[in-house]
Amino acid sequence: MTPKEQRRFNSLYQRHLRTLKLQGLSERTINAYARAVRRLSGHFNACPDKISTDKLEQYFSELVDSHSWSTVKVDRNGLQFFWKHILKRKWQWLDIVKASKIQSLPDILTPQEITQLIGAARKLRYRVFILTTYSMGLRLNETLALEVGDIDAGRKQVHIRRGKGHKDRRVPLPDLTYCALRSLWYRHRHPRLLFPCVSSNMSLVHRAKTTMSRSSTKLAVRTLLQECGIKKISVHSLRHSFATHLLERGLNLRQIQVLLGHASPTTTARYVHLTESIEQDTAATINTLINSLSVNLRRL
Q1: What is this structure's pTM?
Q2: What fold is seen in the domain 111-299?
């Protein structure tokens, strides 16, 4: 780009960042949409407002060959936002980039494999992280973001703040999970965070400003899975496993939808096809499931 084009791009890009923020989008979405604009501009070494539809089609054709469909769709959505809100142009070729719908079932672990995974973790924070994520059906970010003030020990509930779609929800806190979280907190005694970032100096962990990182946590779980000889899954599979195990124990889809914070019952219905459901107490069902895990609390 010429210096003049670079200045125009910088101006449009900064406006893009401001507009994304004002739209109330999450930090992850902002970063992804901003990256889509940078990637397109860098590919052609040109300001996006000078890139023709033909070049965009060529760009996405190459992107499909080199990246996953999830990345392609995120980039498409990010550029659509940029075209609509920043360039004030109609996005006329949305259907050109359209992934085929694949009805896949999530991979899950058995309760025995969950127990094996927790027991294999040598570091307390990862044992408690896995138990907490599984036992409350949380997303990775939701677990890492947990704070001391989110725990309602009296009601045995946890306040999940700013989940997907910026939605809050409350979920039951199993007895075993409460004991594990309390043991972890007694170890680091951070005034706010339950999963603070651990530096090389353990004595300073209570002063941590951030939580454990997503990347290090995912790597730790992936390493544990390899050590246990368990099939390759993701941290999110703990959430899928939780939902499936509750269904197997009779909890109905509507209750599980509320627990997981799904906006649509269709998302929850992936786990099983039911013709008849039996109403059961949610907290009691979860406690029965989690208490069946053979976790040695004396190691916590």
Answers
A1: 0.66
A2: hpI Integrase; Chain A (1.10.443)
From the number of C-beta atoms within 10 Å of its C-beta (0-12, 13-18, 19+), residue 244 rates as buried
Class of domain 3-96: mainly alpha
- C-alpha torsion angle, residues 156, 162, 163, 164 (rounded to 10): 160
The residue annotated as part of the active site, out of 169, 170, 262, 270, is 262
Among 139, 188, 240, 245, the one annotated catalytic: 139
Sheet containing 169-172: order of strands: 151-152, 157-160, 169-172
Catalytic residue at 15?
Answer: no
pLDDT digits (tens, 9 = 90+) for 30-47: 899 999 999 988 888 888
pLDDT per residue as tens digits for the range 189-204: 899 999 998 875 666 7
The question of whether 209 is a catalytic residue gets the answer: no
Enumerate the CATH 1.10.443.10 domain ranges in the chain, comma separated.
Answer: 111-299
Q: Does residue 236 carry a catalytic annotation?
A: yes
**Catalytic residue flag (residue 239):** yes
Q: For residues 199 and 212, give the distance between their C-alpha atoms in angstroms, rounded to a whole number.
A: 10
Query: Among this protein's residues, is 170 annotated catalytic?
Result: no
Among 164, 166, 167, 231, the active-site one is 164
